[in-house]
């Protein structure tokens, strides 16, 4: 569950007459992952050339689909249907069909590209001139005047002020009429200047990289009329483009079956040629290599032998975690649909390696919990839950990535709702519903476990802050201990015994010693004293001024675990080198051990303190909500209707802004704690994604 599935390296030696049957059987097995090493032989070279032709044909067909607004639907099948009797003849047949499609669509594609380019150019020009459509004056004499000239320029907003200052400095007489453009993020301006400054102005335009708006000769130099003509032409072009869409759709409907057969056939040929291009050919035989899941090897062997009439020689070798091959096996692991959203988090680091622990299962627990602690609000959590469910449902069949993101937001919304209930917050900590939640806890004679009542005087604010600090420290110790242990486990799996002995194991023990005090007591003073004793207390004892005369036995045990672990890191690498290379070589490693010790101490302190952001962001959330809730309260108690409207408007807008911004901030900081504090201790993310060949039929629907 926590490790990638075991893979096997499969090598198939088959007579060249059976190569097609073998490759088709591998595709039908749905588990074969090609080796990345380039193949050898004339057939492999021919397959690489064929792949170029196939890719070009697929690219063209994808563009045709775009023209008529088609939607490609994929359907995984158990068998290739129809299975070609001869792939070489099938290739010729599909290429002929592809030519028929090109004859039907190539002319319309060129026309579409031409008009799409013209429309994009005219669209920008029309937007520029729209800011001067009220200027109904003939400016022809100024565009190439002998004494006075005019230019239309588009200046980026960040350069506009500096450009204006430069105009003041270098042009003695000029007029700059500007119109700002929020959507284009530019300032559109008319510069009227004396013709003797043409060279100076052109130099400025080049140095500031300013766009000069050129009006084609066929349009009038009356900006109002030019805009109207451009807009009219743009409308006509878009209508013509719509006609092209409709024409393409009609053409597709006439050859729909041939179109879909060709599209599916090209994808099958691409997979076939890819396997072939990585195979090794001789005059009589071919060697095909790749990876398959070990649990599927019997099924694959049986299928290949059946397809080749027992003419294939097959060698299947299970790949151990430490086996050194020319290339590392791909990483394959089963994952339920509901856990897939958490895959995107470690993927930011990279795919897991074949010989390391998969972090998705840990992340699926820690990520929602930490996010919820940073963003504890029942109302905001429910809003996130609804938004996430909408994204998941709406994009489920349209965009898998957005759908998965929606499912992740749903989980985070649930987490925020739970922590919000525990904090007694509903769109803030002082609303009527929040007060109802507080009453619920009062009836139970308990305090809301995650409440931070900074809006109440004398409400145990300091105690609540201490509780949240302790909670942040405990989350730090749990996740950092798990991360360190996973790092130890990875070094053990990979049999990196030197690293495991010298660094991984003692670092894990250090976090064990830091973990125990965090759960020693619910009183932060006692926890703080425990940490002080095992750190600062030791220094004071050495100086002859111990903190206390007697301490519990657990204090002494933890102190010695920490001391031994730190000493271990200092001398561990030296000890290993002494046994391997002798005393002199080992002692030379003491300086390296000191640097590792220093790095470990800084890392442990820094990582632990970093988790206090959980408390900080939770506090910031409450402070932001309170900041706009206080004026809302004063308005709500006003007698006027207008004040009531203002109150609810401020309340709604404030909550929307707070929820959006704080959710993004909480997500970013939760992500940071995982990518830096956690993953840096155990996760390499240098693997390759398992991408087996699978027979798929393609259906194209017009929208």
Describe the structure.
- A hairpin with a 3-residue loop joins strand 8 and strand 9.
- The mean pLDDT is 84.
- The relative contact order is 0.12.
- 62% of the residues lie in helices and 10% in strands.
- It has 23 helices and eleven strands.
- The protein is globular, with a radius of gyration of 35 Å.
- It has helices at 19-29, 42-67, 87-130, 140-143, 157-170, 198-207, 223-254, 256-277, 297-307, 344-347, 360-374, 378-394, 400-423, 432-443, 461-493, 497-518, 524-534, 536-542, 553-581, 583-587, 590-610, 613-636, 641-678, and strands spanning 7-15, 33-34, 70-76, 148-156, 174-181, 186-194, 211-212, 280-281, 285-293, 313-318, 696-702.
- The strands form three sheets. Strands 1, 2, 8, 9 and 10 form a five-stranded antiparallel beta sheet that branches. Strands 5-6-4-7 form a four-stranded antiparallel beta sheet. The chain has a two-stranded antiparallel sheet with strand order 3-11.
- It is an alpha+beta fold.
Short description:
By secondary structure, the protein is α+β, with helices and mostly antiparallel strands. It has helices at 19-29, 42-67, 87-130, 140-143, 157-170, 198-207, 223-254, 256-277, 297-307, 344-347, 360-374, 378-394, 400-423, 432-443, 461-493, 497-518, 524-534, 536-542, 553-581, 583-587, 590-610, 613-636, 641-678; strands spanning 7-15, 33-34, 70-76, 148-156, 174-181, 186-194, 211-212, 280-281, 285-293, 313-318, 696-702.
């Amino acid at each position: 569950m926590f490790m990638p599935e075991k893979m096997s390296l499969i090598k198939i030696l088959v007579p060249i007459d059976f190569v097609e049957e073998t490759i088709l059987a591998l595709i039908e097995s749905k588990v074969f992952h090609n080796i990345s090493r380039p193949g050898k032989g004339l057939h492999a070279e021919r397959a690489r050339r064929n792949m170029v032709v196939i890719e070009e044909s697929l690219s063209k067909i994808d563009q045709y689909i775009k023209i008529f607004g088609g939607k490609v639907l994929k359907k995984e099948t158990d068998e290739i249907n129809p299975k070609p009797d001869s792939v070489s003849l099938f290739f010729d047949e599909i290429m002929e069909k592809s030519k028929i499609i090109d004859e039907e669509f190539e002319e319309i594609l060129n026309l579409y590209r031409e008009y799409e380019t013209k429309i994009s150019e005219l669209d920008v020009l029309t937007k520029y001139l729209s800011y001067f459509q009220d200027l109904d004056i003939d400016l022809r004499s100024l565009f190439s005047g002998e004494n006075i000239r005019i230019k239309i320029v588009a200046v980026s907003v960040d350069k506009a002020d500096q450009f204006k200052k430069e105009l003041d400095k270098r042009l003695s007489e000029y007029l700059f009429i500007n119109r700002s453009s929020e959507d284009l993020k530019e300032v559109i301006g008319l510069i009227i200047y004396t013709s003797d400054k043409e060279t100076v102005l052109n130099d400025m335009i080049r140095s500031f990289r300013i766009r000069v708006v050129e009006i084609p000769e066929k349009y009038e130099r009356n900006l109002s009329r030019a805009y109207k003509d451009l807009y009219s032409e743009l409308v006509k072009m878009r209508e013509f483009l719509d006609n092209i869409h409709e024409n393409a759709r009609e053409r597709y409907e006439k050859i729909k079956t041939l179109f879909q057969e060709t599209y599916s056939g090209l994808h099958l040929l691409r997979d076939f040629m890819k396997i072939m291009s990585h195979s090794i050919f001789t005059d009589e035989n071919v060697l095909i290599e790749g990876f398959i899941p070990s649990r599927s090897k019997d099924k694959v062997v049986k299928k290949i032998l059946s397809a080749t009439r027992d003419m294939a020689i097959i060698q299947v070798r299970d790949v151990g975690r430490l086996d050194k091959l020319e290339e590392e096996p791909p990483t394959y692991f089963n994952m339920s649909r509901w856990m897939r959203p958490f895959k995107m988090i470690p993927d930011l680091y990279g795919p897991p390696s074949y010989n390391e622990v998969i972090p998705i299962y840990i992340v699926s627990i820690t990520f929602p919990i930490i996010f919820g602690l940073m963003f504890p609000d029942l109302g905001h959590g429910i809003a996130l839950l609804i938004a996430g469910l909408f994204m998941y449902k709406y994009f489920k069949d349209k965009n898998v990535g957005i759908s998965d993101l929606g499912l992740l937001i749903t989980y985070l919304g649930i987490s925020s709702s739970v922590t919000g209930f525990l904090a007694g917050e509903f769109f803030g900590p002082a609303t009527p519903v929040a007060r109802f939640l507080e009453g619920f806890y009062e009836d139970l004679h308990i305090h809301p476990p995650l409440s931070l009542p900074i809006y109440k005087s004398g409400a145990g604010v300091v105690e609540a802050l201490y509780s949240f600090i302790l909670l942040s420290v405990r989350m730090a110790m749990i996740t950092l201990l798990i991360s360190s242990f996973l790092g130890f486990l990875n070094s053990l799996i990979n049999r990196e015994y030197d690293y495991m002995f010298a660094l991984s194991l003692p670092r894990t023990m250090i976090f064990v010693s830091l973990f125990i005090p965090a759960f020693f007591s619910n009183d932060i003073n006692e926890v703080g004293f425990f940490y002080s004793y095992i750190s600062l207390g030791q220094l004071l004892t050495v100086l002859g001024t111990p903190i206390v005369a007697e301490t519990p036995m657990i204090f002494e045990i933890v102190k010695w675990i920490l001391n031994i672990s730190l000493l271990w890191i200092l001398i561990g690498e030296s000890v290993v080198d002494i046994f391997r290379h002798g005393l002199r070589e080992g002692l030379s490693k003491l300086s390296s051990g000191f640097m590792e010790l220093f790095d470990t101490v800084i890392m442990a302190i820094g990582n632990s303190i970093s988790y206090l952001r959980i408390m900080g962001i939770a506090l910031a959330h409450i402070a932001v909500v309170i900041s706009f809730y206080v004026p809302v309260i004063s308005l709500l108690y006003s007698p006027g209707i207008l004040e009531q409207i203002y109150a609810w408007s401020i309340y709604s807008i404030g909550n929307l802004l707070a929820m959006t911004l704080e959710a993004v901030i909480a997500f970013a900081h939760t992500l940071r704690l995982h990518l830096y504090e956690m993953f840096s201790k155990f996760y390499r993310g240098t693997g390759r994604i398992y991408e087996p060949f699978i027979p798929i039929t393609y259906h194209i629907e017009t929208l």
